[in-house]
Structure formats: structure tokens, C-alpha cells
Fold Aspartyl/glutamyl-tRNA(Asn/Gln) amidotransferase subunit B.
Amino acid sequence: MTKQYETVIGLEVHVELATKTKIFCGCSTAFGGAPNTHTCPVCTGMPGSLPVLNKQVVEYAMAVGLAANCRITQVCKFDRKNYFYPDNPQNYQISQLYLPIARDGFVEIEIGDTKKKIGIHEMHMEEDAGKLIHDEWDDTSLVDYNRSGVPLIEIVSEPDMRSAEEVMAYLEKLRLIIQYLGASDCKLQEGSMRADVNLSVREVGTTELGTRTEMKNLNSFKAISRAIEGERARQIELLEEGKAVIQETRRWDDNKEYSYAMRSKEDAQDYRYFPEPDLAPIVISDEWIARMKEQQPELRTEKLERYKSEFKIPEYDAGIITESKHMADLFEATTAICGKPKKVSNWLMGETLRLMKERDVEADALKFSPENLAKLVELTEAGTINSSVAKEVFEQVFAENVDPDKYVEEHGLKTVNDDGALQEVIAKVIAENPKAAAEFKGGKEKAIGALVGQTMKAMQGKANPAKVNEMLRAALK
């Protein structure tokens, strides 16, 4: 009988916080910048330099902890994690081991109709390390310390996930919570959200955990999913061959779709942690926690329910719109101006998504204003422009955030409402298309489409198609 295996997965998710300055100094956290230009004696580990804690880091960490149902540690402190690596200038990292800022939380994920709680063991604050840049041409490695000292929170889950699908749902839920809080942009491609996967397998029915490995270098949801499938298969193959799984850190190569061993897995004692002597403990009062709770914005789950009840838009539309905080804000602001939620939703779900896909634009990068989208909705609803002209105008709004009123005026795109002029064009079209006219009169309903098309062409698209259809029918009778 073939053995059945179960995958057991826990994640360590590192999130770069959206502060303007680093965790212990005043250097910029902006992504990019020439190497080693966002640095000072503190974040390059110069002897005698002293850290000063950025209060905003604590508030972002508390906000994420509260949103993930965690208990806030009211007296928490920093510890030194000692290790030697070229991108770590002090030869230690300031982190939290003994008293992390938040613990014992959960987030609820949904897979189809099934809901499941994924436990959060702890959440701690720490500083990021620098970045090694390998120059294969010169066979050298250079260090850029711009990232050194950028504030991070590390969110450590319980080993509660059983599949790549559950991992994706958990990461997506975390990403949306953090983005809605404004605590981070969570861009995997820029490294502001990174996940290390701890994975083991065991026979179905057993309760004892197998030997786990940790996989690093995962910078996209697809890479994480492939790495989970690849490592699961590798471990099962070892067990089937009677070999042992070694506890180690492995690096995933997404191009080769293969992981290889980096080093044996360290335990806490390998880092020789001790309390950080240069930073005082953080005391978080009940009042501070209450104030943070009051400031928490409406998160996606609540927003989703409100959109369905208040705006009466379909669940599918609400789901897509609230997947991005920027798009949700755009929807609400536009609706507040024009008062037509379903029409706004239609523009976002239709033309906006189409152009985003066509031009490879992320929702967070949408440039058009709620005012201009509202103007376009009003122009279309009033019949000032027809639907095909509206799509043409929206392409300009999408690309350049043009003012639809001015654009329509300057380009002469208003719908022609002169019945006399329209009747003249219709008479000419019928005379020039006797076959289609005869077919329609003979009962072939589809023939009207060709005549409407010819009329719209003659009117340069500036007529109301419904009105053209109505007047054509009247003329043919």
C-alpha cells in the first residue's frame, strides 16, 4: 500500500515598513538610489555610533499586530543577534527574541467556502541588513548599505498550513491587511515583502512533525508556490528511499526550479543573543494601545461587506475592487462625487482592468483622479457622448488623467442630437444600401446592424446608437 504524506508549512514573513527614515537613524528608506548614498555612521556600524528608535516603527508594528488579532507585549525590548556576514556591518543585528512586540494572533483565510485560522506565533521588529552585489565580470562582490537599518517586522506563523494554496491565501491576506494599514507597500519584486518557507512532510495520520527545511530567495507568489511543490516532492522522495531529511537552510533557484543546500539550520543559541545594551525597553501603555485601535482603518473584509450592502454592487465586483486599497479609495471617492456606484464599478471592472492588463499596470500605479472618472460617468449618463466615444476618452483619462469635459469639447466628440441632420444621413444610408434595407423589410432582423454601423460611420461615431436604431426602423417602415 502506498504511503500518503501530509505537508506541514510555517512561514517567516519579513515586511519592510513604510517609514520615511530607518529604524535607528535618520537616513532615507527610499528604494533605489545610488549605492551607499542613504547611509550614516549608525547604519554602517561605525564604532561609537548609537541607535535611536524610530517611534513610527513601533506604531506600524502595533497596528499590524492588532489587525492580526495579536496580544501586544506592553514591556518589550531589543536583543542583539550576533553573526558575521559582509552585508552586516556591525557583525550583529538588532532584533527581538525574548520579548517581541506581538504574539499569539491569527488571520483567517478562505479557500473556496472553507475558512481556516492560521496562527501567528509572534511578530518582532528588527533592522534589515545591507545587500551584496555580485559582479561576475570582475569576479568580485560589493556591498550596498542603503538597505542596512531599514525597519522590518518579521511575522512568524504557526505550522498550520498544509498546501501551497493555503500559503498563497495566507500571504495574500497578510499583504492586504498591511497595505490597508499603510504600514508597507508589500512589493515582493522590490523586496519589501519576503517569505521564508519552513516545510516538512509526515505520514497522514501521524501527529509528530517531520524534519523541516527552510527555503529562502523567494521573491514572488509563483516562486513560493513552485518551491513548496518542489521541496515537498524532494522530501517525500528521500523518505521513500529510506533516507533522512536534513534540517538545513536551502536556496530556491526559480529558473532551474530546484533548491540546493546553503547551510545547516541555525538555532537561537548559535546567534548568542543578549539584550541590546544601547536601547531602553519600550513601555506600551493601555492608552497607547487604545489610541492605536481607534486609528485602525476599515480593513478589506469589512469593506467588502459594506460595498455589498451600502452600494449594492455584486460580490464579485466588490472582491476585485477591494483587492487593492488604491482602487477601493478610487471607487469610493468617485462614487461620492457622482453618486452612481454601479456605473463607477462598471468602469473599474471593465475598461480599467482591460487597460491594466494590456499595458501591464498595477492597481497601485493608476494615475487618473476620481474627479475625472466621475466627469466621464456623468457625460455618458447624460448622453453627451456615446459609449464608444466614452471608451476612447477613457483611454486618455487612464494614460494622462485628462479632463473629459475639455477633451470632448476640444475634439468635437459630443453626440449629435440634431434629428434633422440624422434623418438626412439615415435616408442616404438606406439609399446606398438597398440590399440590407430589403433584407430587413423581408424580416431579417440582423440586417439592421449593418445599417446602424454605416450610419454611425457617416456620423463619425457622434450619434447615439440606440437613437440611430430607432430612427432607422421608423424610416424603413
In short: The mean pLDDT is 89.
